[in-house]
Design goal:
With 442 residues, the protein is of the alpha/beta class. It is 25% helix and 30% strand. The chain has three domains: 63 residues, Nucleic acid-binding proteins (OB fold (Dihydrolipoamide Acetyltransferase, E2P), Beta Barrel); 193 residues, Vaccinia Virus protein VP39 (Rossmann fold); 133 residues, OB fold (Dihydrolipoamide Acetyltransferase, E2P) (Beta Barrel), CATH 2.40.50.
Length: 442
């Protein structure tokens, strides 16, 4: 079945792959390609509706092709678009959002083009991540690594997505963990290691994820304190009986036990399991877009749903007379309450799943929703329609579920005023979008 094909790459998909067409007209996905490339590719999978191929050679390079900077290109899956020029990345991300509006949301192509703004570029294209999690591969020669596109763990000794001063930290951590494993006399029972770093506060947190009792806190503290002078070292304890990421607690090994980041004028405290946008500079762009939409309304009461540790809640509490925030993750709820106290602002905080708590929330002038990639639960989208907030702001990290939810929200109740893609993740296919809606018949 394997055969060579000469293909002209037309666009990027919402994955690491470029998209071309076989002579038959069938769509074929080719990783490592750039729009405009003429390539020779080997067909490796021929499905009824699409095919997959692997890149053999670039016969004619696109003018949008960029020089790859990372030596792990093609091995590690962390920067799958680094071979694509940045302007082309931004255009592809806007196209993702517009295409989802058409093919999932059911909008006419002209309307999708009109509503979807240009992608706001990230302030920094490299070294922008405040957090990276590395998987741990045990064995005779253990290592920390990142997952390749196929799922395997690739060893990583340095990472260009981390700020320059900590770019080589993965290699240093691997060496320290090998030392610990050698002293332990067996395999180190570790799931992963999280690194959180701030250029603004100067803080560095190392989070070691494991089952309870798997790590010696004393040995961990003694070895890790010498690495880049961390301000916090914690052991995130995974539920002993769970196969997933369910957390049973956090044990402070050394230092503050949390990580601080400055967002605008606010300093937020984050526990290791709590969600926070990994690109601080670009998160400020999101914050500005949300607040600009909210301030127009001069709200009496605002809701912040899936609020996390306070990225939007803290500034919302300064704008609205009353703010109510809902979050299901326990560590984020604790962090949010602490961050509100530190900012000297008040908000009602409800710990629980949005779909279960919504009925008791009452009316609001403004609602901000920032759900996970799965988007809104059906009952949440329906409840938002029934509530009829004057302004609804939807922050999304997944164009597909965003388009699905907008189809419900805008069926009768809301109309889209504007959509702004924001690039929080340069060198990757991921895109964040801020959608501002108002009542269709206000």
């Amino acid at each position: 079945m394997e055969r060579l094909e000469r293909l002209r790459v037309e666009r990027l998909s919402n994955s690491p792959d470029g998209v071309a067409h076989l002579p038959s007209g069938k769509t074929v996905f080719v990783p490592g390609t750039c729009p405009g490339d003429l390539v020779e590719a080997r067909l490796v999978a021929d499905r009824p509706r699409y095919a997959r191929a692997e890149l053999v050679s670039v016969l004619e390079a696109s003018p949008d092709r960029a020089k790859e900077r990372c030596p792990l290109t093609g091995v590690c899956g962390g920067c799958p678009w680094q071979h694509v020029g940045y302007e082309a990345q931004l255009a592809a991300k806007r196209a993702q959002v517009a295409d989802a509006l058409v093919h999932i949301g059911g909008l006419p192509a002209e309307e999708a083009e009109r509503l979807c703004g240009q992608t706001v570029p990230a302030p920094s294209q490299w070294g922008y991540r405040n957090k990276v999690e590395f998987g741990w591969s045990a064995g005779t020669r253990p290592f920390l690594g990142l997952h390749a596109h196929g799922g395997d763990l690739a060893p990583v000794t340095s990472c260009l997505l981390l700020p320059k001063r900590h770019a080589k930290l993965p290699g240093a951590l691997t060496g320290a963990l090998r030392y610990l494993q050698g002293n332990a006399g067996g395999q180190l029972q570790l799931d992963r290691v999280g690194v959180r770093t701030s250029l603004r506060t100067g803080e560095l947190e190392l989070a070691f994820w494991s089952k309870p009792g798997a790590l010696s806190r004393r040995s961990l503290a003694a070895v890790m304190k010498s690495l880049h002078n961390p301000s916090s070292i914690v052991n995130v304890l995974l539920d002993r009986h769970s196969l997933g990421r369910k957390v049973s607690g956090v044990s402070v090994v050394a230092g503050k036990g949390c990580w601080h980041e400055r967002l605008g004028d606010d300093v937020l405290a984050l526990s290791a399991p709590s969600f926070f946008q990994v690109n601080t500079q670009a998160a400020e762009l999101l914050r500005s877009l949300v607040l600009d939409a909210v301030e127009d309304v001069r709200p009496d009461r605002a809701l912040d749903l899936y609020c996390g540790a306070g990225t939007f809640t803290v500034p919302l509490a300064r704008v609205a007379r009353h703010t109510c925030a809902v979050e299901s993750q326990a560590s984020s709820v604790r962090d949010l309450r602490r961050n509100l106290r530190h900012a000297d602002v008040a908000a009602e905080v409800i710990g629980g799943a949005v779909e279960r708590e919504f009925e008791a929330l009452g009316q609001a002038d403004v609602a901000v929703v920032d759900p996970p990639r799965a988007g809104l639960a059906t009952q949440t989208a329906d409840a938002l329609c029934e509530m009829r907030a004057r302004r609804l702001v939807y922050v999304s990290c997944n164009p597909a579920t965003l388009a699905r939810d907008l189809k419900v929200l805008c069926r009768e109740t809301y109309r889209i005023e504007r959509m702004t893609p924001v690039d929080l993740f340069p060198q990757t296919p991921h895109v964040e979008t801020v959608t501002v809606m108002s009542l269709a018949h206000g």
